Amino acid sequence: MNVIDQRIHQVLDGELAAEAVPAELRRAVAQLAAAADLLAAPPAGAVTSLESRVMAELRRPAPSRARRVMRWLVTPHAIILRVRPAWSVAFAAVVAAFTLFTAGQEGPEPAEHEGIAQFVGRFPEAQSVHAVGTFNDWRAGSIALEDQDHDGVWRATVLLPTGTYEYMFVVDGERWVPDHLAERLVADDFGRENSIVIVRPDRR
Amino acid sequence: MDVRGAPPDAEVVALVLAGDTEAFGFVIRRYEAGLLRFAARMLGSRDAAADAVAESFVRAYRHLASCREPARLRTWLYRIVTNRCKSHLARRSVADVSLDDAPPVADPADTEADLERADQLVLVERALADLSPDKREAFVLKHVEGLSYEEMAAVTGERIPTLKMRVHRAREELLKVLEDHA
């Protein structure tokens, strides 16, 4: 440990006047003060304000805890999938079979590093549902789900580069809802849950 | 960012708690520069600092009602950012705490003094990054952000003698590096 003269600390802590210490100690004080000044100086280059980024997040409606619990309770799929793994497997098999069948017949053809992602959500009262996430920089509008038979179940099948993505559904352009049928859910940095989809290469 | 004429912190907090979300912009404009500087010094990366501070502002907004002393909002914000930085550092090894921002590119108009200053800044930043997170935090709060030991205690939850000891040790380590390169 390189212990320095206590008077240097006293000067830097404002407990002793700089003039009260010998010149060689004043030099050490000046070195440390200059280092602190360098660190305190504004960084070179433009600094982008965080205001628009933060305010956009604050304006994004955050569902209350009670509302999230209520939504959880009224979504039977989520409860069934979590407490009965056998049903989860069966449901996943049906979805996979449906996906393969439709993709094989008339769905999009994935390239080498692409895979098929299918988004399914039950929103009986919704007028529109979009999938937003890290695959489209959280911008609504690019992946619209459809409910062609008006049974309240909205679907979209899209090609995405293979990888792992976080996403949510945006219902009627304003309600952000995680997909509880997703492979898994993760807490985001803003205290909410995002769904995870893993897009794997198509092996047909 | 011009925040002249902005209401005092306690008033801004009351406005936000009354439902005026936009008033939180005053808080951001008033404190983001200092918080970004602090986080950048703690994390060694401007991008990571921007993420940490943005997340901290969102957390602060969501938990504003728990700010018991709105007049001391600054200290409260530093505490949130400090915790955020600690979480960030805990997720990566200390060895990663280095400068991942590119060093400043020399401008033809730079004088010799500018270049010397840039070199010195790189040296100080590296020496700071080599400190343990506790010492780095104490040194930056004290000497870069200009907080008193009482304010530092409020931010970190540590006792003043502990903080003084950390600042002293940090000064000693930094001074050794500076003298070795003098």
Identify low-pLDDT runs of chain B.
94-98
By helix and strand content of chain A, what is the structural category?
alpha+beta
Q: Rg of chain A from C-alpha positions?
A: 28 Å
* CA(first)-CA(last) distance of chain A: 65 Å
Question: Could you please describe the fold and organization of this structure?
Answer:
The complex is a heterodimer of chains A (204) and B (182). By secondary structure, chain A is an alpha+beta fold. Chain A contains 6 helices and 8 strands. Chain A has helices at 6-12, 23-40, 51-59, 65-73, 76-83, 85-105, and strands at 114-122, 129-133, 144-145, 153-161, 163-171, 175-177, 184-187, 193-199. Chain B is an all-alpha fold. Chain B has helices at 9-17, 24-43, 46-62, 73-90, 112-130, 133-144, 149-156, 160-180. Classes of the chains: A alpha+beta (204), B mainly alpha (182). Chains A and B meet through helix 1, helix 2 and helix 3 of A and helix 2, helix 3, helix 5, helix 6 and helix 8 of B.
What key phrases describe this protein's structure?
heterodimer, A: 204 residues, six-stranded antiparallel beta sheet, B: 182 residues, mainly alpha
Give the topology, please.
The complex is a heterodimer of chains A (204) and B (182).
Chain A: H1 6-12, H2 23-40, H3 51-59, H4 65-73, H5 76-83, H6 85-105, E1 114-122, E2 129-133, E3 144-145, E4 153-161, E5 163-171, E6 175-177, E7 184-187, E8 193-199
Antiparallel strand pairs in A: 1-4, 2-3, 2-5, 5-6, 5-8, 7-8
Chain B: H1 9-17, H2 24-43, H3 46-62, H4 73-90, H5 112-130, H6 133-144, H7 149-156, H8 160-180
